[in-house]
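DM from R.C. (forwarded with permission)

"hey, sorry to bug you on a friday — could you get me a structure for this? deadline for the figure draft is monday and I only need the backbone to look sensible"
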Amino acid sequence: MNRQSALHDTVLDPREGLRREMDLLQSVVSGEQPAGFVIWRCRRAIVVPRSLTHKPGFERACEALGQQDWPVIVRETGGDLTPQAPGLLNVALAFRQRRVDGAIRDSYLRLCDPLIDCLRSLGIEAYCASVEGAFCDGDYNLVVDGRKLAGTAQRWRKMAPATGAAQDEFAVLAHAVILVDEDLATLWRMGNAFYRHCGLDAHIDDSLHVQLAELLPGSGDSLLERTQDLFAGCLQAWQTQQ
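My reply, with the result:
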């Protein structure tokens, strides 16, 4: 079953994109399918993990950013604050994974490896690494020449008993947000405003990021569509191997 979402000319409410990801994850939990993927983009928002909702200034931050037409949306995956906007691509895979030594790393690589292969076909050499000071930093950022191109996060759920899955087998949603063609300075400015209103010391450094529009100069207005098609093709090939 192909769970690829239509992207071309489609900009979702961020809640709808996140709902599609959770629906995909649930389809693996229930045994409806062994694996799948979605690709989507959305209107601008500040998307945060549930852990940030407990900060003393959270409601104040939501009100201040909402007044500037930057709603704050809560997601179910981990990580940190992630600004969203139409010039970013969200890619999510869902699959079954045993909870064994190295499972977290393996799950991230099941997402990152096909994306790295896609980027290589464009002449871009990406790798996984932490970039301290970048948005939603983690060990499995996609990085090009020391600058962050994409951030990643995961969500694990126990398989439904009716599937007959082993006790140590889970459904995993692995998510990446890829910087393609957007006003990044505004994204980081709004992200930092959220931190400031929450009274947090965290700060996103604009200079630590790169997007595909910079790596592929002269790509034109079709860059989002072409890269979405490329990622979808790579992930479709990945899905047939599951």
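R.C.: lifesaver. The chain has one domain: 14-240.
me: no worries. Residues 103-121 form the longest helix (19 residues).
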